[in-house]
Every structure is written in C-alpha cells, then in structure tokens.
Design brief:
single chain; 154 residues; alpha+beta; 60s Ribosomal Protein L30, Chain: A; 3-stranded antiparallel sheet; 22% helix
Length: 154
C-alpha cells in the first residue's frame, strides 16, 4: 500500500490513486481521473442491448430480438459504445466515466464486469453502478451504460 498519490497519464487523462491504493486489489474502477485541458469531452447517451435508433414512443416488437440474458445484452451495449466512441473520434481508453444501471445487480454484475474488463483491455475508468426497478426503453432490458470520454484534440 502506498500513502503517496500515484498519477498515471493515459491518453487525454490522468488516472489518480490516493492514500490506501493497493495495485494487488482487483477493481473495475479507479477513484479519480483528471482530464487534461486539451481534450474534447464526449458524453454518450445510455446504451443498452436494444437498437440505438428506435421509435418513440417505443414499439415493443422492435425489441423482440434482444437476448434475455444480461451478458449478451452487455456485449451488444459495449458494441454500441464502440460505435459512438468511433463516431466522436474517441477510443475505449478515452473513457473517463462509466455509469451502469442494472435491473438485477446480483444476477448480472459479475458477468458484466468480465465483459467490461475484456472490452477495456486493461484500461479502468471511474465507475458507478446502480440498481433500478426497470429501464425506460423496454422492460426486458437488464443493463444500460452511460459514458463520458476525453477525446484527443481535433
């Protein structure tokens, strides 16, 4: 354990660890990330396993092809994040904040943590996990992910 803050630069941000940091502890989040001033902040709307573009009001039949399990929905949600990041000129390592909304944390969190770790490939953003009664898009959805990224300057 270190009592000295550790700062590691990654892309357009600095990962900050504070007193009590132990690199041997496996964690899906870091306590703080500071964005450097030249970065362009990218805010990505919550993504799910549902098609990103869909009608409002929602039509239930649009969501009939969504897999029922949380892991499959997570894989699709992370694919949707890739699309949004690329379109915004950002990469996975540029993600500085991740908010995950689960409808059942106990059933899905471990699988989503594994998929998330694979997707990030060693990068770890700040993160918050919340359990909600249901997601707004469709009651069959189990996970929604909201992201903020720090893209390189244009």
């Amino acid at each position: 354990m270190s009592d000295i803050p550790e700062i590691v630069t990654v892309g357009q941000s600095e990962i900050i660890h504070h007193e009590g940091y132990d690199p041997d502890i496996v964690s899906p989040f870091v306590p703080a990330i500071r964005v450097v001033s030249s970065a362009r902040l990218v805010f990505i709307s919550g993504v799910t396993g549902a098609p990103v573009y869909h009608d409002h009001p929602h039509r239930p039949e649009v969501f009939d092809a969504i897999p029922a399990d949380g892991a499959a929905q997570a894989r699709t949600a992370f694919e949707h994040l890739d699309q949004a990041l690329r379109a915004a000129g950002a990469e996975r390592r540029d993600v500085v904040n991740l908010i995950r909304f689960f409808t059942n944390v106990a059933e899905d969190q471990d699988a989503v943590n594994r998929i998330q770790a694979e997707w990030f490939g060693g990068h770890i953003p700040t993160s918050t996990t919340v359990e909600v009664t249901r997601l707004a898009t469709d009651p069959r959805l189990r996970l929604e992910i909201h992201v903020v990224a720090a893209a390189p300057p244009a």
